[in-house]
Fold:
Amino acid sequence: MHASQQNQAESKRQPVSVRVDQVSKRFGAQEVLKNVGFEVEPGEIFVIMGPSGSGKSVLLKNIIGLEVPDEGTVWIDQLDASKRETHSQVLTAMVFQSGALFNSLSVFDNLAFYPREHELYDEGTLKKKVDRVLEMLSLQDAAEKLPSALSGGMRKRVAIARALMMEPQLLLYDEPTSELDPIMAATICEIIATLRDELGVTSVVVTHDRDVASSIGDRVAVLMHGSIRKIDTMDKLKAIDDSEIKEFLNPEVNLKHPRFKTQ
Ligand SMILES: Nc1ncnc2c1ncn2[C@@H]1O[C@H](COP(=O)(O)OP(=O)(O)OP(=O)(O)O)[C@@H](O)[C@H]1O
Ligand SMILES: [Mg+2]
Structure:
């Protein structure tokens, strides 16, 4: 094991904080994030909800350092998330909304990719670790399959499994339960909570699922039109007197709505 990996291994159990400090991000003329600011405490499960297109995925990419803010800074502990060195000192991982799996590698090799790349374990130990994570996510039978041969929900679970293999201190989840049946969604919630309770992993979870937000979120931020509208517990948000948040959290299905009128 290299010295830097030994440092990684030693430091990986310390919970980290995240501070998003007045972050703005635009693509061309479109201002996607506008002065977004909040703090996530070490070991907290911080949920982000908001309408489609409000900037949730872009925000996560700025936290993990894949996108760089035009203004403001994301701090992971005292380190600037946009700097490469930060990610060799703090172990971060992201479960992408699309999965972002390696299509030419089997499920097993997708999970083994990061530890092999960093020479973290011998092959025997690696196999045990991969098998354990596959079992946690009920993926044992999929180990030798290619991502193209999986259902949407299985691909989602492989993306989560691959992030778990990195044993990160900070884990970002972009829609971890979409495409999953209710039992598997509950399992994912249990895994996120267990990682926090047992390893002190700090989690930022983007979700559209109110049950996920209620069951695991310590606090929930509502992102609307690129700005944080409110941060509170899910219970308090449900009772809030803000028509846009109310409508977002409890939308009414109205088949008499004008948009359904045929001429
Ligand atoms: N690389 C990019 N280049 C140009 N525009 C982008 C880029 N990434 C995101 N956008 C735009 O930024 C806006 C916010 O996108 P984002 O993916 O963050 O939305 P979201 O809140 O995650 O939505 P959803 O709930 O549908 O996943 C969208 O209008 C999107 O088209
Ligand atoms: Mg998104």
